[in-house]
Specification:
By secondary structure, this protein is an alpha+beta fold. It contains 9 helices and 4 strands; from the N terminus they run E-H-E-E-E-H-H-H-H-H-H-H-H. Helix 1 runs parallel beside helix 2.
Length: 234
Amino acid sequence: MSSPATIRLYDLAGADPDRRFSPYCWRSRLALAHKGLPVETVPWRFTEKDAIAPSGSLLVPVIVDGDRWIADSWTIANYLEDTFPDRPLLFGGAASRQLSRFYSCFADSLVSAIFPFVALDILHRVHEKDRDYFRQSREKRVGTTLEAFTATRDDRLEAFRASLTPLRLTLKTQPFFGGERPLYADYAMFGPFQWARTISPFVLLEAGDPVRIWRDRLLDAFDGLARAAPAYAT
C-alpha cells in the first residue's frame, strides 16, 4: 500500500475552531478515515470564500491533494475511491457506487428535515463574523425568522422520528447500512446526525432507537474520531 501525502480538508467550524459541524464535511472526514489517509483539517467559516476559491466552490468540504483541489462530498468520495484503489473500498464495489449515491441523496433530505430543529442553535454557535451571513441567507431560504422557524420544533419531533422507520427497520437486522462494516452509505447518513449533535443540545433520537445505536457505533469508529469532536451528549 502506497504512502500518500497528507490531504488538507477545509472543514466548517463555529466560533470555537474545534467545533466542526458540517454534515457534508463529516462525510468526507469519515471517508478519509475509512481509506486510512493522512489528513490535516483546516477550520473554515462561511464568509471565508477566498480561502477555497481555487476549488471553484463557495462551500466546503474541499480537499487539497497535492496540487488538486476537489469540492463537494460526493465528488470527494469518488475521487478517493478512484485515486486510492489499493485502500479499503468506500462503496463496497462497482455496483454499490450507484446505491451509495441513493444514500447520499437520502442524507441530503435528512439535512433539510433536521434543520428546523437546529437552525437557531447554529446561529448561536457560528463565528461572530458569520452571524449576519447565516441569518440573512437562511431566513431568505425558509421565509421567516430563525426564531419563528424553530419555535415549533417540539411539535415536529414525533413526525420526524416516525420518518426514520425505513432506517430503523434496516438497522434492526444489521449493524450498518453497509452490512457488517460501515461503508460510504453509513458516512453519508451519519453526517446529518453528527451535525445536529455537534451544534445543538436538542435530542433528536431516543435512547434505544436502532438509529441512535447505529449512530453511536459510528461515533466510536476510527478510534472514536467523531465522538472526540466537541458536541452535546444527545
